[in-house]
Here is the input.
Amino acid sequence: MQDRHAHLLLSAARADLEREFNVSLPDFRTFDLPALQEGETETSAQAIARLNRWVRQFLVPLCQRPNYLEVSVRSALEQAQKSGVTRFEVSFGADFPRIYHLKPEDCVERIAWIHQEFTPDLDFRLDLGFPRTKPMEDLEKWLGDILRVRDRRPDLAAYFGGIDLYDVEDAQPPETFRSLFRTAQNAGLKLKAHVGEFGSAESVRHTVEVLDLAEVQHGIHAVESPDVLRFLADRGTILNVSPTSNRVLHAFDWDQRPDPVERLREAGVQFLFSSDDYLLFGASAADEMELMRNS
Ligand SMILES: [Zn+2]
Here is the structure.
């Protein structure tokens, strides 16, 4: 089984972090839920605000621990392998080394060591993750730095699988990132981006066209347009869908009829289930498949 949409530093098992750091981490799915009147439901904006609070309150302090990278990456890889994943493609923020005052080379070297030491049989690749909210010159510089590491270190080259764009979907139009994606494409990286998690079917088509994406993280709102589904099917673009993440953040209604999975299948759109953030949503790619089978 493959999981091609996960975020490396949000994919650990909660129990591993609790044990290793001797802390108690509340389950995000039930953390700080708003008091609602009868018939009211939490909005996406409220869920995202809760998520940001959870990250600030519980994750950011852990990230300050000197061995956070080792502990969380090891847990994420072991958790993926235990759940039956054989190929694991994860986004790793290209800004992470800088935030934690590490050289990009040292950072990738540490991740590679953890992989080889604890889950050498797992086919594991990094998608360099770029937040849409940051200035373009920073993104270009981070990509350049990482590509230089790849050129200098053939022993690490196999870890660089692709590129991913995330953060607020409409922070900047996809045209802004065209040159970044061309550089990545010329370097042989697989092109992915988060779109259609909250945004429209049309935004999925537009982003796929402008950035020449091979895969879309989420993209599930594409089911709202038969035209866009046909476009994705004809193009062979793969959607990496994460129903539990969508349910928890109220991003998309998977219980609607006709069934979204049926609509994807009937249109011939290729899709895979993925975990997104196992630490927050607690569902592996295998769990997602099982949940769908039973729904
Ligand atoms: Zn994601």
The two ends are 20 Å apart (CA to CA).
